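ok so I'm stuck.
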Amino acid sequence: MYHMRKRIQKFPTIFPDDVVLLNDLWAQLVAARYKAAFSDNKSLKNWKCPEELLQYCWGITPSRGRSWSGTKFLYAPFNVENKHWMGMCIDIKYGHIHLFDCDHACYTADKLKPFVEHFQFLVPEIIQQCKLFTEEECPNMAMTSWPIVRIKEIVPQMHTSGDCAIFALNFIEMHMMQVPFIRISDKYVEMLRKKLEPKFFARDMDS
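replied:
not stuck anymore, here's the structure
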């Protein structure tokens, strides 16, 4: 994700200016803060968004981040049980969270629910408390939860295990650029993985 954000800054006229790319650490923080809220209070009533999450909203974090002000879509990869990666798109205007999953057989909807419900409840809270959006920009920010939809029809499936992270990053980049997923395949992802492997070990890689 760092290298994707780096490309956006280097070629601002090519990439859309109304998107923000987050990292997996953001997803982990949301999960941790949701768990802590229910451990302490058993609800989100009077929950206050911690500064570590607000720093993402302000564009301070992650490296080469961007303020959420004026943003229409947030993108992030996230990991389930340290064994499966998915891509996520948060639609600010319509208050929807879309998941891009290359292996629907890995998790049924019921099995996946406890690993994504923190996004459903905390994302609208974060949007509301960061105070960067008007009601016109985000009409649904006062809702207590946003629906999560795992997109199935247009998302290619992985047939060779082990490349779900590359699939997730591809889904994010192509959706951001409004490019159809049709060219994503096991063969294409394998080629891309070999190309990206050196970057995964770069010192400036944050996620």
